[in-house]
Amino acid sequence: MAEETSNGAEKRGMEPLVNVRPTKHFKPEDAERKWLLVDAEGQTVGRLATQIATLLRGKHKANYTPHTDSGDFVVVINAEKVVFRGNNKVSKKKYYKHTGYMGHLKERTGVEMLERAPHKVIELAVKGMIPRGALANQLMKKLKVYAGPEHPHKAQKPEAYAVGAKA
Question: Could you tell me the pTM of the whole model?
């Protein structure tokens, strides 16, 4: 009886697979987490949010695995000085919140959000750029956004991260 290798690839006129390595999946325990400090002053909301989402997911690391949390903690300061690019976008942009009661849909413009809760502008932008589900909730817990230049995470010694710099 002849031995069949690689699921009958020779029978179909194909070469058998040689030196096939299984995909390496990293566990969350193996991730080396850093604390990164991002200054949002003068940054565009969308471009800043995409880079923060990349840092939170860990896509900038060599051991990135899509279904695990291998990202870093991100501390964002000066959220009140963030910029909306575009033709009067800060006044046209709408943020919606529903209270759960009929007819109670609350609507705020970008100007009102920057006055009342500037940290929410960045949090909502980042939340929209990461996949939904339990992993998203876990990733959002690692995002800390503050309106001014002060933050309570000095004990973690966050490293300054240059947003917009090509690595």
Answer: 0.82
